[in-house]
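Sample entry copied in:
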Amino acid sequence: MHETERHRLILSAVQERPIVTVGELVALTETSEATIRRDISTLDKQKRLRRVRGGAEALTPPPLPGLAGRPFAVNQAINAEEKQVIAREAVALCDDGDPIIINGGTTTFQMVHHLANRRVQVMTNSFPIAEHLLKHTKNTVMVPGGALYREQNIILSPFENDMTRHYYAKRMFMGAYGVGPMGLMENDPLLIQAEEKLIGQADELVVLVDSSKFENRSSLVLCGLERIDVVITDEGISDRVASMLEAAEVRVIVAQTGAARKTDAS
């Protein structure tokens, strides 16, 4: 292969991922390791890539792919009151000393305020949750390794062997894109991959979803209804959905908003 062709392949490869190793480039170009090292050195001097130990990287590393769905800041304002009361009921399930997992999301984020007077051990992949708990509570906080996705403010690891597998939780609290007869649904494969690992570390799965989520559907199913132990939702849940969850032996907790409490009292 001509030098120009090799250089073109090498430059293309470093744009696809953060770092490309010498071995990967040898396989890609079908040339020797010595030749690849010379090519990397040449391209580094030409300021077309950056030479690093064992390989090369792009001068401007490729951005992380975005996750499907609305940004965290946008989701915060949707059904805000419902999320607050659902989160309050979720924290009521916790006892001091419990090891728990709180998955990233705007509903689970509301748990942080009610955890201010608790002493639990929290593993979370949410940067805002971890930051708030560290600043405003005395709870123990752990985060998995990985990359921070800015719009959703969530930490996801592409690696199978991360610290998640070493953490045990009594309960995992999580939201979802949707809940239906097939189970818990998300709209991004990266979220599915990360959440599957977290669910596997918890004895009990508690799902926090406002009633609008029972109408959402996605092509990606995270887990079946049989894996869910508790669903916490608001009073907008329909009889049909309640019956579906009951048939799957899922415990349902209905959190009441201020408007609903006033109606009950009148």
Remarks:
- The two ends are 83 Å apart (CA to CA).
- The chain has a mean pLDDT of 88.
